[in-house]
Write a structure and sequence with these properties.
The protein is mainly α. It has one domain (4-65). It has five helices and two strands. It has a two-stranded parallel ribbon with strand order 1-2. The termini are far apart. The model has no long low-confidence stretch (mean pLDDT 86).
Length: 67
């Protein structure tokens, strides 16, 4: 499990937005409402919930400093 700030990766940011799987799910209308990830994959949803609470994005920290 990761604690502290997340290591930024431009390649992974772009890949997450442009993956074939994401495009298919989006175009077929198979998306689930926000917050229903635990129905699709409970183990992954639990991991993500803990991960997002124990780590933070360095770009958000920088953005808050310059606001």
């Amino acid at each position: 499990m990761k604690f502290g700030f997340r290591t930024p990766s431009l390649r992974k940011r772009i890949a997450a937005r442009t993956s074939v799987k994401r495009q298919l799910v989006h175009r077929l209308g198979l998306k689930m409402p926000r917050g229903y990830g635990f129905l699709r994959n409970p183990k992954k949803a639990a991991y993500n919930k803990v991960y997002n609470r124990t780590s933070f994005d360095i770009f958000k920290v920088i953005g808050k400093l310059f606001k």
